[in-house]
């Protein structure tokens, strides 16, 4: 897999540092609350497991699976709910954990869904933020790294289902997808 990577953007050590920084901030901000952590499958599972272990409050973890990319390199423009969360969010402080915010469609879909079910608060913690890709308004409250408008893989992020298990984030060589 390493041979397919043109450039490493964030190393294992960079990622560890970002998780520790975000975990500290979240621990402060959620002190005294009992948030429901909502991890967005599949991409965010790597970031979720690392960041929650730095997040020192009583919390529950749930998952939601939505799809907009269908494995390719561009958002399809519609968001499908593949698998709903199992907890009741009525009155809960919900913290969404995402891998990357690009167009913002996935996040705004999930935020609307949670508020329509009477969540008390909804905040967003994303590993990567790609503000140049925004099509709809979506603002992350906690961001690991801000990335340029490039397609990245690794640490949960896939290309056609592969590269999620790379322990770092990188950019693919053009010949991989050309
Ligand atoms: P949005 O709905 O904000 O356009 O995109 C959200 C989803 O698109 C992310 O959760 C992720 O699965 C996928 N995505 C967006 N940008 C990238 C990227 O640069 N690389 C990969 N692998 N997936 C991306
Ligand atoms: Mg995602
Ligand atoms: Mg994907």
Low-confidence stretches are none
Overall outline: globular
Q: Give average pLDDT, whole number.
A: 95
Please list the strands of the largest sheet in the order they lie side by side.
Answer: 4-3-2-5-6-7
Largest sheet: 6 strands, mixed
Domain Phosphoribosyltransferase: 14-160
Pathway: Purine metabolism; GMP biosynthesis via salvage pathway; GMP from guanine: step 1/1; Purine metabolism; IMP biosynthesis via salvage pathway; IMP from hypoxanthine: step 1/1
GO molecular function, one term: nucleotide binding
Protein name: Hypoxanthine phosphoribosyltransferase
Secondary structure layout:
Blueprint: E1 5-10, H1 12-29, E2 36-41, H2 45-52, E3 60-67, E4 80-83, E5 93-101, H3 105-116, E6 121-129, E7 142-146, E8 152-153, E9 169-172, H4 174-177
Parallel strand pairs: 2-3, 2-5, 5-6, 6-7
Antiparallel strand pairs: 1-9, 3-4, 8-9
Helix pairs in contact: 1-2
The structure holds guanosine-5'-monophosphate and magnesium ion (2 copies).
Compact summary:
The chain is built from four helices and nine strands; from the N terminus they run βαβαβββαββββα. With 178 residues, it is α/β, with parallel strands linked by helices. It has a single domain (2-177), classed as 3-Layer(aba) Sandwich (Rossmann fold), CATH 3.40.50.
Structure notes:
With 178 residues, the protein is of the alpha/beta class. The protein has a single domain (2-177), classed as Rossmann fold. It contains 4 helices and 9 strands, in the order βαβαβββαββββα. It has helices at 12-29, 45-52, 105-116, 174-177, and strands at 5-10, 36-41, 60-67, 80-83, 93-101, 121-129, 142-146, 152-153, 169-172. The strands form 2 sheets. A 6-stranded mixed β-sheet has the order 4-3-2-5-6-7. β5 (93-101), α3 and β6 (121-129) form a beta-alpha-beta unit. The model has no long low-confidence stretch (mean pLDDT 95). The structure holds guanosine-5'-monophosphate (5GP) and magnesium ion (MG) (2 copies). One magnesium ion binds next to loops. One magnesium ion (MG) is lined by residues 40, 43-44, 98-99, 106. Its EC number is 2.4.2.8. Pathway: Purine metabolism; GMP biosynthesis via salvage pathway; GMP from guanine: step 1/1; Purine metabolism; IMP biosynthesis via salvage pathway; IMP from hypoxanthine: step 1/1. Belongs to the purine/pyrimidine phosphoribosyltransferase family.
């Amino acid at each position: 897999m390493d041979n397919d990577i043109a450039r490493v953007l964030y190393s294992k050590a960079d990622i560890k540092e970002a998780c520790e920084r975000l975990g500290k901030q979240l621990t402060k901000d959620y002190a005294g609350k009992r948030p429901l952590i909502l991890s967005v499958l599949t991409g965010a599972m790597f970031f979720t497991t690392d960041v929650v272990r730095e997040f020192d409050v009583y919390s529950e973890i749930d998952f939601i699976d939505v799809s907009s990319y269908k494995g390719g390199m561009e958002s399809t423009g519609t968001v499908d709910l593949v698998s709903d969360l199992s907890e009741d969010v009525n009155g809960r402080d919900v913290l969404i954990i995402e891998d990357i915010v690009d167009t913002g469609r996935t996040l705004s879909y999930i935020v609307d869904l949670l508020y329509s079910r009477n969540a008390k608060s909804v905040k967003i913690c994303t590993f990567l933020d790609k503000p140049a890709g925004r099509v709809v308004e979506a603002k992350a409250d906690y961001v690991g790294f801000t990335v340029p408008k490039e397609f990245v893989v690794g640490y949960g992020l896939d290309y056609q289902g592969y590269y999620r298990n790379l322990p770092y984030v990188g950019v693919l060589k053009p010949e991989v997808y050309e």
